[in-house]
Amino acid sequence: MILEGVLTTTSHSGTVHVAPMGPDVDESFSQWTLKPFQTSESFKNLRRENAGVFHVVDDALLLSLAVLGRANNWPSKKLADGGFVLDGACRWYALRIDEWNLETD
Known about the structure:
Elements: E1 5-10, E2 16-21, E3 24-25, E4 32-33, H1 41-49, E5 51-56, H2 60-68, E6 76-78, E7 84-86, E8 91-96
Antiparallel strand pairs: 1-2, 1-5, 3-4, 5-8, 6-7
């Protein structure tokens, strides 16, 4: 299934980067397939850190700001492993990249 939400990654400077994302997720929520554009900031951060935090949100303002690239100042808390959790998320999932498939369709 595709789960729409917001992904946070850690920028090169150590700050939060927020972007909309719709990963493919299996029914047990144990396998996630992220498909960011290879030219995006999210992709660059994921390649460098091999980690991100996916958020399920019901706040239309947060989702709209993420789509516009203006959500990086949204209140967040830094996790011990370096990811960022956005305030007000319904649920969040800390993700660790185990495998890369950089082939293009």
